[in-house]
What does this fold into?
Amino acid sequence: MDGLLIVMSGFSGAGKGTLMKRLMADYDDFAFSVSMTTRAPRQGEVDGKDYFFVTREEFEKAIAEDGFVEYAQYVGNYYGTPKAYVLEQLKKGKNVILDIEVQGAMQIKEKFPDALMLFVIPPSIEVLLKRLRARGTESEEVIMRRITQAKTECTYMDRYEYIVINDDLDTAVKEMYAMVQSAKFTVSRCREFIDTVIDELKSI
It folds into this structure.
């Protein structure tokens, strides 16, 4: 059985990256799709592991070559999901997690209707602001731009299947894993298997 494509969106500062790293550390059937971006690396981020950091020119060349599953602009920078890696991992049976903002997520859902849509939020906006400021990498002006973006993002939340409230990390990781396992066996995602069973019954 092919793996499940998982689209994870959420407010900047909600803890999506931390959740994904813990999920992959705790369970071996997940793969993280490394995105490409034109934004500058944050402290500790590694090129090719956290993101592929490229220039705008390089990114736009990849767009022209149809090299992305999706791409979008967010707070002045490009973000995109390289196509080849995602398809390869799904064929291997891995559940591939895409960390994508809402515009890109809608593109993915259109191209991959069976993708599992998860939206990560903090327990409160007060906690969100505290996490953004604790990064120490952005000015108050940029932080407020991220809050403005969050106001837009929240209007998309009802287009996702599950909400992940990232308060306690251990709890959130376990809940996410349960969501993925449940989603794998919905009737719509098991259509091919169901059709095979029906055909076998008809042949008897």
Notes: The first strand starts at residue 5 and ends at 10. The chain has a mean pLDDT of 91.
